[in-house]
Design goal:
54% of the residues lie in helices and 19% in strands. By secondary structure, it is an alpha+beta fold. The N and C termini lie far apart (171 Å).
Length: 327
């Protein structure tokens, strides 16, 4: 009974050691006695116990994130975060030792580190040829360039580089602060320029409006004066056409103008106006002033006559009567 149990256990161990299963999106590399034998696809397989050794190879795309530093042509040291996607080349599984699966297993001990070295070399050959602004603006072009350079090399090792992405560009703190200050200054300058242009436009428009308003006002005043002059001329012609003499017509027109002026003055509200108590007396004084203006000057008359003329012509002015010349 004991020997039967031992036999069953041995059979189970042998079966378990000879059978294996390969998962989907994986392949198995079989080595027999330490030498490459074959590549097995997904499914159930049997191997020779103690002779065959099986290695699992993942065919799914993997993602790796790496960080590199480089210096631009304007001497700014930057850090770049690079993301790469890659997988083992399974396009020629039946090629055996010439396939990409075989190369990925037996040509490189660490494909990821090899790709990192290639990427660092490609980046440091691209970044120094560009300024900092060009690195930001041509980020996709740089990624595509290094992707093409590294993909060709890695394909020789059975690795397919799907894509390379530059996900982030980091600057030193002082450089970033300076760039932010430059951008802020440019924005402030543009804002100030726009405000100045707007203010200038407002000033120009206001000046043009004032000029047009003054022109219109001047034209209105000119038209008004023309109309007034035309009305005055028509009024004088009408008065002259009556039986009044020309002197009486002029006096009547002046009196009419005076009445209109006083009416306009009174229409502005309460005001104080000083008027002579006797209009005829005021008229007489005005005539006397005119006569005095037409009197010959002292240098045109005999000595001693100027004071007499002044006293006789304008006695209302209070000139002295003793014959003295008061000028």
């Amino acid at each position: 009974m004991i020997w039967l149990i031992i036999l069953i256990v041995l059979v189970v161990c042998v079966v378990l050691s000879t059978a294996y299963v390969v998962r989907q999106q994986h392949v198995a590399i079989v080595e027999r006695l330490g030498k490459f034998d074959s590549i097995q696809g997904p499914g159930f397989h049997v191997k020779l116990p103690y002779c065959d050794k099986v290695f699992d190879v993942d065919l799914m795309t993997e993602d790796q994130h790496m960080t590199f530093d480089a210096k631009t042509s304007d001497n700014v040291t930057i850090e770049l975060d690079v993301s790469i996607q890659y997988h083992v080349d399974a396009s020629d599984v039946d090629a055996g030792s010439a396939s990409g699966i075989w190369k990925s297993r037996y040509t490189l001990t660490d494909p990821v580190m090899q790709m990192k070295d290639y990427l660092a070399d490609a980046l440091r050959s691209q970044i120094p040829n560009r300024t900092l602004d060009e690195v930001f603006s041509e980020k996709d072009a740089i990624a595509q360039s290094i992707d093409e350079a590294v993909a060709t090399k890695m394909l020789n090792y059975g690795i397919v580089l799907v894509t390379t992405l530059i996900t982030s560009i980091r600057l030193p703190a002082e450089v970033q602060e300076s760039m932010n200050h430059i951008i802020a200054s440019k924005n402030h300058l543009e804002s100030a320029t726009n405000d100045a242009n707007a203010e200038r436009a407002k000033t120009v428009i206001a000046a043009q409006a004032r000029a047009e308003a003054m022109a219109a006002e001047g034209q209105g005043i000119a038209d008004q004066r023309i109309a007034i002059a035309r009305g005055i001329k028509e009024s004088i012609d009408t008065i002259k056409g009556s039986e009044l003499s020309e002197a009486d017509a002029n006096r009547l027109f002046e009196f009419t103008q005076w009445i209109d002026m006083m009416r306009g003055f009174a229409s502005k509200g309460a005001s104080t106006v000083v008027l002579p108590n006797d209009f005829q007396s005021s008229r007489s004084q005005f005539d006397q002033f005119l006569a005095a203006r037409e009197t010959p000057r002292p240098d045109q008359s005999q000595p001693g006559q100027d004071s007499q003329l002044t006293q006789e012509t304008c006695p209302e002015q209070g000139y002295p009567t003793d014959g003295a010349d008061k000028g």
